[in-house]
Write a structure and sequence with these properties.
The structure is a single chain. Strands 1, 2, 3, 4, 5, 6, 7, 8, 11 and 12 form a ten-stranded mixed sheet that branches. Strands 9-10 form a two-stranded antiparallel ribbon. The protein is built from six helices and twelve strands. The longest helix has 19 residues. A hairpin with a 2-residue loop joins strand 3 and strand 4. The radius of gyration is 17 Å and the shape is globular. It has a single domain, classed as Alpha/Beta hydrolase fold, catalytic domain (Rossmann fold), CATH 3.40.50. The two termini are 27 Å apart. The protein has 259 residues and is α/β, with parallel strands linked by helices.
Length: 259
């Protein structure tokens, strides 16, 4: 376990850390509150990133969570590839497929759990209060994680694909996330752009019809006019109104569940 953080202008302390996942060393981007939101210990939020990895924007959001009063860790699900998704692609479709295959559930879920255990061991953390946040690729991964652990009190998923296409799945068959809801061990909040070009609207409709099966409760928000990755202010699809409302709802839900 290695922790070496630096002070940032936003008042947080943040930086890359390393921890064990099984027999392997993986990394994550960690941010800690500056104490202005309270004396701590602070609840933990572990984030699963999108298919681009732990980008500069993802690091900034990790720090934003710390500024809200959470011990915030984004686990690098591409640690074994040097911190980048696979680069041997011939098209953007292939790039996305290779990224999903490299961070498949069987590998990513243990890494997220290891990240949570690492974060909970920190002096600033309250080990009894923990939540998960996921974006795109990670928005589906946190659902799989939520069926495998009792350590999460809440899950928030932003534009995670409800049904992975065959080329994104290790089995070569479409992988539906919908049956996971009835096995979730924590409540879940979903966010989708109403004009998401990467996720078929009928999949979001199907997910919405499945919400009642969620074992611990579920809610879903759609944002008219927002496309895929709308929360990312470095992305062409950035949609400020949707991003701001998503953030306020996310932080509110985390605080309600984690105290």
């Amino acid at each position: 376990m290695n922790v070496n953080l630096t002070d940032h202008r936003d008042g947080t302390r943040a930086g890359w850390v390393h921890f064990r996942s099984g027999e392997e060393l993986v990394r994550g981007y960690l941010a800690l509150p500056d104490g202005s939101s309270g004396a701590g210990p602070y609840p933990v939020v572990v984030t699963a990133h999108e298919n681009l990895g732990v980008t500069a924007h993802r690091q900034e959001v990790t720090r934003r969570l710390a500024a809200e009063g959470f011990v915030s860790l984004t686990v690098d699900l591409f640690s074994r590839l040097g911190g980048l998704p696979p680069q041997n692609f011939a098209s953007q479709d292939e790039r996305r497929a290779l990224a999903f295959l490299a961070a498949h559930d069987e590998r990513a879920v243990p890494d997220l759990q290891a990240g949570l255990e690492f974060a909970r061991s920190l002096a600033a953390a309250d080990p009894q209060r923990a939540g998960a946040l996921g974006f795109c690729l990670g928005g589906g991964t946190v659902l799989a994680w939520g069926t495998a652990t009792d350590d999460l009190d809440v899950i928030v998923s932003l534009y995670g694909i409800p049904i992975l296409p065959a080329e994104y799945s290790p089995t070569g068959e479409p992988l539906s996330r919908l049956p996971l809801l009835e096995r979730l061990r924590a409540p879940v909040q979903f966010h989708f752009g109403g004009s998401d070009e990467a996720i078929p609207a009928e999949q979001v409709d199907a997910l919405e019809r499945t919400l009642a099966t969620a074992a611990k409760g579920a809610e879903l928000h759609r944002y008219e006019g927002a496309g895929h990755a709308y929360h990312d202010d470095t992305h062409p699809n950035f949609h400020r109104r949707a991003a701001d409302l998503t953030w306020s709802r996310t932080v509110r839900r985390l605080r309600e569940s984690l105290g």
